[in-house]
Amino acid sequence: xxxxxxxxxFKEIMEQPKxxxxxxxxxxxxxxxxxxGLNLTAEDLxxxxxxxxxxxxxxxxxxMAAKYTLERLLRKPVEVTLASEFRYCDPIVTPRTLALxxxxxxxxxxxxxxxxxxxxxxARLLSIVNVVGSTIARESDDVLYTWAGPxxxxxxxxxxxxxxxxxxxxxxxxxxxxGTITPxxxxxxxxxxxxxxxxxxxxxxxxEDIQYFASIYFNHPSIFFIGRNIDYAVGLEGSLKLKEIxxxxxxxxxxxxxxxxxxxxxxxxxxxxxxASYGKLFEKLMSNVVEVKSRGADVLGVTTASLEExxxxxxxxxxxxxxxxxxxxxxxxxxxxxxxxxxxALMRGCDIDKPxxxxxxxxxx
Length: 365
Ligand code: M6R
Prior knowledge:
Elements: H1 8-14, H2 16-24, E1 28-29, E2 32-33, H3 42-47, E3 50-55, H4 57-74, E4 78-82, H5 83-86, E5 97-103, H6 109-120, E6 124-129, H7 135-138, E7 142-145, H8 158-178, H9 183-193, H10 196-205, H11 207-217, E8 222-227, H12 230-246, E9 249-254, E10 271-275, H13 282-293, E11 298-304, H14 308-312, E12 317-321, H15 329-347
Parallel strand pairs: 3-4, 3-5, 5-6, 6-7, 8-9, 8-10, 10-11, 11-12
Antiparallel strand pairs: 1-2
Helix pairs in contact: 2-8, 2-10, 4-8, 4-12, 8-9, 10-15, 11-15, 12-15
The structure holds 5-amino-5-deoxy-1-O-phosphono-D-mannitol.
Subcellular location: Cytoplasm
EC number: 2.6.1.16
Keywords: Aminotransferase, Cytoplasm, Glutamine amidotransferase, Repeat, Transferase
C-alpha cells in the first residue's frame, strides 16, 4: 500500500505530479479554465468587498500564497486568517464577503466552526477540500475538490500542492470573469500550469542532491527559513514540514523582518534556508543572505535555474527548480523543502508518518 516505499509521506511526495495533473486537467478545456461546481457570476465577483481565507496549518500556508496571487490577479483585498482565531476576532464579514475555506480532511473542527461563524455573518462559502462528502464540503455553498487521492501521512504534501493548483484555477477563472487579466497573461499561465507536473517530476528525479544536503544539516539544532512575497509563504510551509516530522526547532521569517529582531539568533553554524525564486525580489533577498552570512550562518539557497549561478556565488549550496511563470513558483519551490524535511527526519530516525503528538485530522478545538 506504500507503493514499495518505506513511508506514506515519501509515496505522497512522489505522487504530486499526478495529483496536480488530476486536479487541473479536467478543469482546463481548450485553453480555458472551467470550474464546475462554482456558481459565482461576474456580478457576484465584482460586488465582493473581500475574500476571507479560513484554514489551519498547511492549508493556512496555501492561503498565505493565495493572498499574493489573488490580490495581484483580482485587485480585491484578501485576508488570511487562522480558523482558530477567526471566531474570536470579531471578523468584519458582510454578505458581499467570500469565505474561501481550505481543508484537506474537510473535518478540521476549528475550520468548521469558523466557517459556520462566517455563514452566520452572511458570507458566501467556497471550499477547497480533498475528502469527498466531508462535513466542510457538505456545508459549503460551492466546493472545488482537490483530486489528490487519499493522503495518509500526517505531514501533508500532495494535498498542499493540489490546494495550490485549485487556487491558481480560481484566480484565473475569477480574473477572467472580472476582466482583470489580459488574454496574453491568461493564456501564458494556463499553458504553464500544465507544465508544472513535468517540472515537479524533474525536481523529484534530482532528489539525491537534497538527500545529500540533508546529510550535512540533519543535526542542526535550529533552522531558519527566509523569503519575501510568495517565497515567504513557501518558507512557512517548509518550516512547518521540517519541525513537524524532524522535531528540529525552526522558524520562517519574511526576510526583511530579520533586522527587526531575529537576526540576533544567527550565529556561526546556524542554518538558514534562503528562498529566492521570485526574480523580482532576488537582489533584495540576496542582500539578506549577505547579512546572515556575515554573522556566520550556513546558507542553503533555493532559486530558479536561471538565477542559480548568481546565487551560488554567495550561498553554501544552491538548489534550483525549473523556471516557470512567477505566480506558479510555490508549486515547484515546496518540493525540495518537503524532500529536505523527509530526509532530515529519516536521518534522525523519526516516526515520519506518525509524528509524536499529532493527528491527521484535528477534530478537537
Ligand atoms: O485537513 P486540514 O487541511 O484542515 O488540516 C489542517 C492542518 O491540521 C494540517 O494542514 C496540518 O498542519 C498538517 N499536519 C501539516 O502537515
